[in-house]
Amino acid sequence: MEKIEVSIISKHTIRPSASSSPLQPYKLTLLDQLTPAMYVPTVMFYPITDPVFNLPQTLADLRQALSEALTLYYPLSGRVKNNLYIDDFEAGVPYLEARVNCDITDFLRLPKIECLNEFVPMKPYSTIAVFGSHKLIDGRTADCFLKSWGAIFRGCREDIIHPSLSEAALLFPPRDDLPEKYAGQMEGLWFAGKSVATRRFVFGAKAISSIQDEAKSESVPKPSRVQAVTGFLWKHLIALLGH
Fold it and tell me: Label partner for 237 (CA 20 to 30 A): which of 71, 83, 95, 108?
């Protein structure tokens, strides 16, 4: 197979479910104001092991869980206004459901890393792709949001992470008089003149097991595969930057 073909099945706009109190505009922090409007993609694959897996019901439950999660993380469903605050939370987030013409083994054999740019749900895998604006959400908040979305979907409400959305702007209050040129300069520092390459690394089961053994510590006696490989990559990236 040489080409991935994606078919959009349905498009939705997911909005926060009913809130117990009116949602107030969310102030950006000074750091948010200086952050370029870039989007960070994340693609997660989930094996389908249930022999009676009900895809339509699962998709409906995911949409409902997302609506509830957005009630807690409501800035994600809004729109940035004048680089000062987020409002219009009823605008919602675009939600697309898609199907592709290959399975995950075919995808992994494809030599072109650019194929990751496609939104690729692959049978017998279910895939969730998230594209978050770095101006609205950082890595830690994205992790908490996804965990909470998953907890609501599974019915494990004790695992929901309730964010403290007002604290960041208190620590780094926004500047009403921030010149636009500063934001432009920051965007130039992030992207201008940069030569960027993307590489794919494939770890076999034996290699991952070895990395897990090396990653064991007193605080993490049984690292997961994700923890071990992520730590391995960051360890060597930090070592490289040190040189």
Answer: 108
